[in-house]
Amino acid sequence: MKRQGFILAEALVSLGLAALTGTLALTLLVWAARTIDRAQARMAAATVIERLYEEARLTSQADLRAVASGRTGRYRWRRLPRGAVEIANPNGAQRVRLEVTWSAGARPDRSAIDAVIVGGSQ
Question: Which run of H or E residues covers position 54?
Fold first, then answer.
């Protein structure tokens, strides 16, 4: 009389495949969550840099020549002077570097732009 059903080896192989599939699915979900967090952090950092740029446009030339730094939420920012632009502009143009740093998980991350501010507030 022949029995119908699975043998132990088939059951173990099925269990192993199910465990592997579950592990891969969980890894994919964790990777996707980290990627989304990094993307959102970069978008927010771009907003901080945009705000810093707009504030720099309203800053006096003397203040643009000084280092400024601060914190906005989870972001640390710095405005670094890079020197005057050599042009025949009576208002003067000032080069600045705007940097934003933050921590995404255990990794530090940074975004920066170099800008030229023309005029500034007097």
Answer: helix 8-57
Closest CA to 78 of 87, 70, 90, 66: 70
How far is CA 78 from each of CA 6, 29, 35, rounded to the nearest angstrom?
Answer: 66, 35, 26
Cα–Cα distance measured from residue 112 to residue 35, given in angstroms and rounded to the nearest whole number:
20
pTM, entire model: 0.72
> E strand or H helix at 102, and its extent?
strand 93-104
What own/partner pairs with CB < 8 Å and gap ≥ 24 does 40-45 have? 41/74, 41/102, 41/104, 41/109, 42/109, 42/111, 44/73, 44/75, 45/75, 45/100, 45/102, 45/109, 45/111
pLDDT band at 10 (very low <50, low <70, confident <90, very high): confident
Q: How confident is the model at residue 119 (pLDDT cuts 50, 70, 90)?
A: low
Tokens (6 digits) for 83: 């020197």
